[in-house]
Sequence to fold (457 residues):
Amino acid sequence: MKHIDIAEIFKNSSLINTTVTVCGWIRTARDSKNMAFLEINDGTSLKHLQVVIDKASEINVANLKSGCSVKVEGILVPAAVNTGSVEINATQITLLGDCPGDYPLQKKKSTLEFLRTLPELRLRTNTFNAVFRVRSVVSSAIHNFFQSRNFVYINTPLITGSDCEGAGEMFRVTTNGYDHPYHSEEEYYANDFFGKKAGLSVSGQLEGEVAAMAMGKIYTFGPTFRAENSNTPRHLAEFWHVEPEVAFAELPDVIELAEDMVKYIVNTVFEKCPTELDFFERFFEKGLKEKLKNVAESKFEVLEYTRAIEILKSADVDFKYPVEWGCDLQTEHERYITEQVFKKPVFVTNYPKAIKSFYMKQNADGKTVAATDLLVPGVGEIIGGSEREANMDKLLKAMEDKGMSIDAYQDYLALRKYGTAPHGGFGLGLERIVMYITGMSNIRDVILYPRTVGNLR
Fold:
């Protein structure tokens, strides 16, 4: 039906004193002796639009309750109380969708935990209206950043026969029923749809490298899946992953690209979501805008892993997880480095090869790899990347050391045979950067339907 977005109503002053039609859901309904008032929202604006109803008119206000969807026709006028805003003097209201009295989103404030039980309704709240508006802008900024720099957008497969991370934390894809009487794993997979073991992709990187070795600069952006039994505020079993891959790039090039991308995203959100940032600063993270401004304006620190360990070991802090060279940095370590020591984002580089993936370029010391993680205050790691190992012999040795099946990676290995070249890239979890930008503390609150251990709706 023909109507005007509420966002346009607030922006377009030429509509004042004209007849307009809007649609939306009733957020609040108030009644007085002679007048009734509705606040409606159609999702295009964080701000609600007030509708004023003269009870002497023929408009029936009895069924206009919170949660109902309506079409409103009336005269747009300057707001009587809220100076600088507008409201509609209604001439006709059509009830599009009724709502019963047990509508769970009433005036009282609901907790985020409660709202997670209502994924079908929680986006109607101010919080999730703002979250998903920012998520949309962040996603658009990512595409714009890469498209403006001659990157090619590549769609990598979601069903794969290889485990990019080599950690075995994959969801299995099968058409076999639970009651088939197979006598061995080999027989089971031989009779499956693909005739071999298949799973949901944990990363598009390996296929992305294939594309980069022909197209030069590519990026992937899509869902990935990890069957990691981590029931924490920072982990999901299904999340959205951004993965650029660049031919003829070494580790410093990867770091520069990652820093430029993060700053571009933050600046875009500042430009397009000022109202949402004000909302998050007020209700979720005091000092949020100053934190983001610091990201946009600071030169990120680059810190060797070995030096990071030295800093942590000398810190006068009782860490829950002990710190020794060779350990994987935990969130508490990452946050100490970014929040207490440098007070800005930090790239930690050259990790021990034993704790990193098989595909990372081995450094000349034989102990470390040319890897980097970007750590940010308040969250910890949001980006992981590396220069990739281009030497066939070293790559094969790394795979053998980790007990990986060479046969499953023949396409990937062939890149080292036919015109190998230095190349690198990184992965950014979309949900983690949305958490960082909005100040939301739980990753379940920045994705429409969170997939976590024991939770599937």
In short: The radius of gyration is 26 Å. The longest strand covers residues 19-31.
